[in-house]
DNA sequence: CGCGGTGTTGACAGGCTTCAAGCTGTGTGG
DNA sequence: CCACACAGCTTGAAGCCTGTCAACACCGCG
C-alpha cells in the first residue's frame, strides 16, 4: 500500500492527460511502457521559480505536464532576452543533455508540474525505440523552426508587428494544448516579459500594446492579456500562423 | 572503368577530407559504411545559387562538403532575415525532412559541394544506427543553441556589439573547419548580407563596420572582411565565443 | 501605513532608417 | 577604345522609431 501511495503522487504515463489531446500522436503500448519507465518522477514548482540555470549542469530532462514558463539568456550587464515559451508537451533540458552545460535558463510563469527523465537513459531510448529517437529530433527541429520565426520577428518586424506576432503565437500555442480557452486570460505575464521577448524597452512595449488595444485586438489585464481577435493580430504581424500538425510527446 | 570514373566524380565517404579534421568525432567502420550507402550523390553549385527554397518540398538532406552559404527567411514585402550560415560539416534540409515543407531558403555564397541524402532513409538510420540518430539530434540541438545566441544578439545587443559578435562567430566557425586561415579573407560576403543578419539597414551596417575598422579589429575588403583581432571583437561583443567541442559529422 | 511590483504617460535624446548622391571597379556592347 | 550599366561601398542630411528619464496611479501585502 505504501508503494501505491507513492505512485499516486505522480501522474501515470498511461493516464497522462496530455495524451487525450488529439494534437499529440498516438503511442504504441510498448512505447508507452518504455517512457513510463524512463520517467523518474515529477517536479512541482511555484510561479516565478527558476527551473534551470544558465551555466549549470543538470542531469535531467523534463517534459511540461501543466503550467507554463520561458527560456531566457542574460548578457553580462543584465540585459535579458527571452528565447521561447514552454507549455504542456514541450521538452526542456535537451540542450543541456547534449551540450553538457545549460546555455539558457528556464523560469516558471505559473505553477508547473514537469515529468523528470534521466539524461543517462537517453542513449537507451535511441537504441530500444528508434521512433522515439526520431521524435526527439522532431522536437529539436521544431524548436529550431520556431526560433527561426522569432529571429525574423526581432530582426525585421516593427514593434507593432512583433507584438502582434508574439501574442498570436502565444495564443495559438496555448489553445492548442488547452492552456487557454478562446482567450489568453489565464496566462499570467508582465509587460517586462513581453519587452524582453520582443527586444524592446518596457516603455515602448507598453505604448505598443496600447496601440493593439486601441485596435480592439487585445485587452491588457492585470498581468496578462485577453486576445480578442487572433486573425487581426496575424494580419498586423503579416504572419500565417503556426501549422496545425500532429506532434510527438515524450 | 566507367564505374570507376563515375565514382571518381564524387568524394568517397571513406576518403572524406572533413574526417581528417580532428574537430569531428571518429566513425566506426560500420557507421562509415552505412553513411556511405546513405549518400546518394553530390550537388555542385555556383556562388549565389539557391539550394533550397522556402515553401518547397525537397526530398533530400544535405551535408556541406566545401564552400559556404546561409539560411534565410523572407517577409511578404521582401524584408529578409538571415538566420544562420552553413559551412563544411553542417547539415541542411533536416527541418524540411521533418516538417515536410521547407520553412526557409538556403543560398550559396561561394561555389559549394554538398553530399546528398534521401529523406526516406532517415528512419532506417535511426533503426540501424541509434548513435547516428543521436548525432542528428545533437546537430539539431546545436543549431538551436546557435539560434538562441543570435536571438540574444539581435534582440539585446547594440549595433556595434552585434556586428562584432557576428564577425567573431563567422571567423571562429570558419577557422574551425579550415575554411579560412587566420583571416576571413577568402569568405565572400556583402554588407547587405551582414545587414540582413544583424537586423540593421545597410547604411547603418556600413557605418558600424567602419567603426570596427577604426578600432583596428577588422579590415573591410571588396566583398568580405579580414579579421585582425578576434579577441577584440569578442570583447566588444561581450561574448565568450563558441565552445570548442568535438562534433559529429554525418 | 509604507513599500515594492506593475502599468501608464509625457518629454527629450539618440540610435537607426530612409533618402539621396557620388565613388569605385567590373563587365558588356558599340 | 570608350560609353554605359550595374553592383557594391561610402557619406551626409533629415526625420522617425525607440530608448531613457521621470513622475504618477494602482494594487496587494507586511
What report would you give on this structure?
The structure is a homodimer of 250-residue chains. Chain A has 250 residues and is α+β, with helices and mostly antiparallel strands. Chain A folds into two domains: 2-130, Jelly Rolls, CATH 2.60.120.10; 157-237, Winged helix-like DNA-binding domain superfamily/Winged helix DNA-binding domain (Arc Repressor Mutant, subunit A, Orthogonal Bundle). Helix content of chain A is 42%, strand content 20%. Chain A is built from nine helices and ten strands. Chain A has helices spanning 2-8, 29-38, 94-99, 122-128, 130-156, 159-176, 191-198, 202-214, 230-237, and strands spanning 39-45, 50-52, 60-66, 69-74, 80-86, 91-92, 105-108, 112-118, 218-221, 224-227. A four-stranded antiparallel sheet of chain A has the order 1-8-3-6. A four-stranded antiparallel sheet of chain A has the order 2-7-4-5. In chain A, a hairpin with a 2-residue loop joins β9 (218-221) and β10. In chain A, α7 crosses α8 (202-214). The radius of gyration of chain A is 19 Å and the shape is globular. The two termini of chain A are 29 Å apart. Mean pLDDT of chain A is 92; it is low at 1-8. Chain A binds a DNA duplex (30 and 30 nucleotides) through α8.
Amino acid at each position: 500500500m505504501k508503494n501505491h501511495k507513492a505512485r499516486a503522487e505522480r501522474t501515470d504515463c498511461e493516464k497522462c492527460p496530455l495524451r487525450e489531446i488529439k494534437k499529440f500522436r498516438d503511442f504504441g503500448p510498448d512505447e508507452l511502457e518504455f517512457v513510463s519507465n524512463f520517467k523518474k518522477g515529477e517536479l512541482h514548482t511555484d510561479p516565478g521559480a527558476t527551473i534551470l540555470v544558465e551555466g549549470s549542469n543538470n542531469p535531467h530532462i523534463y517534459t511540461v505536464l501543466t503550467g507554463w514558463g520561458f527560456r531566457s539568456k542574460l548578457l553580462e550587464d543584465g540585459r535579458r532576452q527571452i528565447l521561447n515559451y514552454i507549455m504542456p508537451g514541450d521538452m526542456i533540458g535537451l540542450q543541456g543533455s547534449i551540450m553538457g552545460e545549460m546555455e539558457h535558463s528556464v523560469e516558471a510563469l505559473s505553477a508547473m508540474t514537469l515529468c523528470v527523465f534521466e539524461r543517462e537513459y537517453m542513449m537507451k531510448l535511441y537504441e530500444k525505440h528508434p521512433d522515439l529517437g526520431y521524435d526527439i529530433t522532431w522536437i529539436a527541429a521544431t524548436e529550431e523552426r520556431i526560433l527561426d520565426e522569432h529571429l525574423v520577428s526581432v530582426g525585421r518586424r516593427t514593434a507593432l508587428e512583433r507584438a502582434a506576432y508574439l501574442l498570436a503565437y502565444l495564443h495559438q500555442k496555448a489553445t492548442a494544448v488547452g492552456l487557454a480557452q478562446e482567450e489568453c486570460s489565464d496566462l499570467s505575464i508582465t509587460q517586462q516579459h513581453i519587452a524582453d521577448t520582443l527586444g524592446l524597452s518596457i516603455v515602448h512595449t507598453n505604448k505598443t500594446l496600447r496601440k493593439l488595444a486601441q485596435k480592439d485586438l487585445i485587452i491588457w489585464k492585470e498581468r496578462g492579456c485577453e486576445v480578442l481577435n487572433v486573425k487581426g493580430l496575424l494580419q498586423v504581424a503579416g504572419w500565417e500562423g503556426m501549422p496545425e500538425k500532429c506532434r510527438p510527446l515524450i
